[in-house]
Each structure stands twice: as C-alpha cells, then as structure tokens.
Amino acid sequence: MDIFLQQLINGLTLGSIYGLIAIGYTMVFGIIGMVNFAHGDVFMVSAFIGLICVLLLTTVIGISSIFLILAITLVVAMVFTGLVSWAIERVAYRPLRGSFRLAPMISAIGMSIFLSNFVQVAQGPRNKPLPPMVPDVIVLMERNGYQVTLAYKQIIIMAVTAGLLFGFWWLVQKTPLGRAQRACEQDRKMAALLGINVDRTISLTFVIGAALAAVAGVMYLMYYGVVNFADGFVPGVKAFTAAVLGGIGSLPGAVLGGLLIGLIETFWSAYFSIEYKDVAAFSILVVVLIFMPQGLLGRPEVEKV
Amino acid sequence: MAEAASPSPAPKSWDLNPLLKVDHLSMRFGGLVAVGDVSFRAGRGEVTAVIGPNGAGKTTVFNCITGFYKPSTGRLALMQGCPATDAELDALTCGGLASARTAAGTTYLLERLADHKVSSRAKVARTFQNIRLFAGMTVLENLLVAQHMSLTQAGLINPAALLNLPSWRRQQKQAVDHALYWLDKIALTARADDPAGDLPYGDQRRLEIARAMCTRPALLCLDEPAAGLNPRESLELNTLLLAIRAEHETSILLIEHDMSVVMGISDHVVVLEYGRKIADGTPQEVRNDPKVIASYLGVEDEEEVEAVAGVHA
Lengths: 305, 313
Hints:
The complex is a heterodimer. Chain A is 72% helix and 6% strand. By secondary structure, chain A is mainly α. Chain A has one domain: ABC transporter involved in vitamin B12 uptake, BtuC (Orthogonal Bundle). A two-stranded antiparallel ribbon of chain A has the order 1-4. In chain A, strand 2 (137-143) and strand 3 (146-151) form a beta hairpin. The radius of gyration of chain A is 19 Å and the shape is globular. Chain B has two domains: 1-123 and 217-313, Rossmann fold (3-Layer(aba) Sandwich), CATH 3.40.50.300; 132-215, P-loop containing nucleotide triphosphate hydrolases (Rossmann fold, 3-Layer(aba) Sandwich). Chain B contains 14 helices and eleven strands. Chain B has helices spanning 13-16, 58-65, 86-94, 115-120, 139-145, 148-152, 159-163, 166-185, 201-214, 231-247, 259-265, 283-287, 290-297, 302-312; strands at residues 18-29, 32-43, 47-51, 73-80, 99-101, 106-109, 124-126, 219-223, 251-255, 268-273, 276-281. In chain B, the strands form two sheets. Chain B has a six-stranded mixed beta sheet, with helices on both faces. The longest helix of chain B has 20 residues, at 166-185. The A-B interface holds A 175-177, 179-180, 182-183, 186-187, 189-198, 200-201, 204, 305 and B 66-68, 115-120, 125-126, 128, 130, 132, 134-137, 141, 144-146, 148-149, 151-152, 156-158, 161, 211, 215.
C-alpha cells in the first residue's frame, strides 16, 4: 500500500509532464494533420532556456525567492520557446503546406535533429546540472522505515499543470481563438472563407503547444535537476505515445494518455523492472494501435469528401 | 411580355449601380477552359442568378469570386459604398494594390486578395453545393465563428478578451445577439446548442445561409441553395432570401437550377453555357431568349418545362 501510494504520486507527476507535451502533438495533428516530430526537441530547448534563465536570475541578478525565480523562468521559457516554435513553423512547415503529406513530416524530423545538434554544439554534450530548487518534502506516512513522501516540487508540478489545463480548456472552448482553431480543424478552406486567417491560427497553435511544452520543460528541469541535449527524444516520443493512446486530435485524450503513460512507467519500474520501463510504455503504444486505432477518447476516422 | 434583346436597350439597373463587376474572367485548368471571357455585373441590392447547364462553369465563376481559385485572367471588382468609374478601376488594375479607398467607398480587386480577406475585407460570403458546416460545433458556434473578425478586430488574440474587460463582454454579447437574430430568422433558436451535423438537411442549408449572413456580407453567393430541398423547404428558402434582400443591404448572387426559385426572386439572370455567357437580362428577357431555350431551358426536359410553366401560370 505504501509503495503503491508513493508510485501513484510519482506517476501522476511524471504523467503531468507527458500530458503537457502531448497536447502540443495532438493540437498540431488536429489542425494540420501532421506529426510534429520536432516537438520533443522544442521541449528540450525549453528546459535549456529555463536552465539559463534560472542561472542568470540566481547568479547575475541574485534573486533568492524560489517562487519568484520559478515564475519568471516559466514566463521567459514560454515566451522564448513559443518564438522558437513559431520560427520553426514559419521556416520548415508552412512552405511545405499543400505539398505531399510526407514532406512536412520529413522536415519535422530534420528540425528535430537540427535542434538537438544545435544544443549539443552550443551547450556541450554533457549533462547540465542545476542545484536542487525545491528540496522540501512532506512525509505522508511512515511504516517499517519506508516513508511515503510528497515533495513540494511534485505539488507545484501537479498544481501548475491543473491550472494550465483549465486555462487552456477555457481558451479552446470559450474564446474566438479556440473557436477559430476548432473551425480550422474541421474545414480549413471554409474557415478562410468566413474571414479567419488560417495561417495565423496555425502559427498560434504551434506557439500555444510550445508554451505548454515549455512549462513541461521547466518542470522537468526542476524535477530531475539535470538536462541534456538528447533529453528531447524519449520524453517526446512518450508524449506522442500518450497522444496516440488518448486518441490523437483529442485534447482531454492527450492529458489522460499522459497520465496513464506516467503511471504505467512508474508502476512498472516499481513492481517489475526499471530497465524495461520504456519497453512497457511503448508496448502500450503497439497494443493500442492494434486494438484501438482511434485511441481511448478519439473519434473514429471519418473520411472527408 | 418584354422583347428579347432589343437593339437599343434602356440602361439596366445593374449597369447603373453595380456592386460587382466581372470583366473578361477566364479560368483554365491545364488545357480545359472552364470559364472563357465572361463579363457581367451584379447590381447593388439585387438578386442576380447565374444559370446554365451542368458543367457550364457556374461554380467556377463562384470559386473565382470568393477566392477559392485565382482566375487565370480577368478582373473581379467589388465596390463597396459607391461604384467606381471605369477610369478609377483601370488605375487600380494598373497599380499593384488590391484595394482603393475613395470618399465614396472602397473598391476591392477580389482576384488579388488572400482568401480570408475576400470575406473579412471585401465582405463576400458564400455557401456550397455540398453543405460545409462545421458539423462538430454547435449551431450557435457556427454562427459565432463567422463573426470572428468583428470579435477579434483583425487579430486572433484580443487583449480585451484575455482580461475580460467590459468592452469585450459587450462585444461578445453583441455577437451572440446577432447570432440569435439569425437563428430566429431561420427558426432554429431551439436547437442553438445542438451539433450542427445533427440537423435535418433543409435546416443545415438555412443554417449555412445564416452563417454566411453573420459575416455581414455586402455580397452573398449561394451555390444551388435549393438543391435537394422539398417544395415546402424550397418555399421557406425563397422567403428567407426575399427577407434578406428586403431587410439587409446584402446583394445576392445565386446559382440555381430550380427555375421557380430563379424566376421567383431574381432581378437579373446571367446564362452560361460551356464557360461562355450566352444571355444576360431580366428573367423575362432570358426566358424568351431563343439561345437560352435551345441550350438550357430546352423542350425535352419535362421537369424544367413544368417548372417554367409553373412560373408562367
């Protein structure tokens, strides 16, 4: 029971991070039908932006309040990552729109390699550590010397994720921008004929997805305290798995899928073997694709005429 | 009964006060000439019908006007406010701009505008032969999407919206009120929150027209609005279109095969055949034009003879 509770906490934390990244995949897929393979690397870049920002704030400016640092870092990372993603869409995807379906996907793979390589060269290939930011924990229960703990940083991650998801849901459901996005998702040409600037809507979709990934990146950095140029790949692919598991194109599905992947991974590590945690996560992807190609909350594919 | 094509006709209302001037419009797809050198005018505040046999190029003309296609050659001038003179139009055509503003109004060259600006700037709205509602969104949301431009004031994110300022709430209320006004017009108020895809066919057609009207268009282009409607629904459609013409400053351009609709509500009829214009005039002139009878109205097709007879009666 105590191990179960601990793993549940850990799994939900990890799942929140995956869920935030997965939204970027699922939104972009929904609106332009493309898997943005560079999204995982955008997440990694955001963690580096966060790292640089935290180091600047602590050493150069000398702010000591940890929450102020976190808040500033989140905003800075969201803005800069959004800009990076906007530029990627403008340079690498928009010129290929209307080209054959594989073209933007290959361009995305290229962008992914470009980003991780660029960070490797610019920041060096080694792990970049960060001193522990929020080390405090709450001991929930103790039995036979095993402590079930809830770290403050885990609370922060889950709370920030929940808050962001609510704000994001409001954006998509209640604002003109969200309505425009949903309209573009269903019929881009018709949306244009009603006066919606489709290109700009798509750009903003990329920016919003990147901003959410940036939050995930800063959370990841705070949680693990270390980041590396290759860290975009595995979390990125897992978040993509989460999006597929939840039903690609479905926003609640992405969050649900992220939480499930996080839970599966931590429970597998705890009860079976930590070496095979990635195998477990990706086996889920295979099984889902075979038996439920539309995912948990996805709609069955409807051929457009 | 008016004479067909008299030698020196009196000036027509659509020549005197045109909203849309189509000049020498051609559209080629590879070697196929879908539309060849078509010119016509659509009068301000009038209902202009474009008719012709299947494959005559009617929908292609529509697609060019609404920014769906870029025409191969030709000029599509939409004049808001007051018609521009030919000299002004030629000056605009020779310059590189897509629009020109004068004291009297603004002229847009539709072939030079990006697709979303044909709607947001030039105020041209359209419906499709195969209905293109946002089936997964509610009826009300379909009408709100159409007001996107006025809600966001030419941007996508309105700062007032994020801060929920009173000005924004007022704007939003206006948008919802405008949508409800049109829902009332098409008698769908009760179904405002249902997914648009769940509505019966006839209701979907009227909703598509209401959605187009929510963009507050200067020109409403309807592509076969009566297709697939039963006689009762067809009558409701006529009532709706006549109400639009009577109560709003919206001119209508209409493609239609149903001659009872065409003859019943249009002021001006343009007839196309094989991508060329073969006749242009009032419904009476066109109905008696021997070329039109030979190529389109015909004598073999029972349904259309009946339809025309129904109008005569």
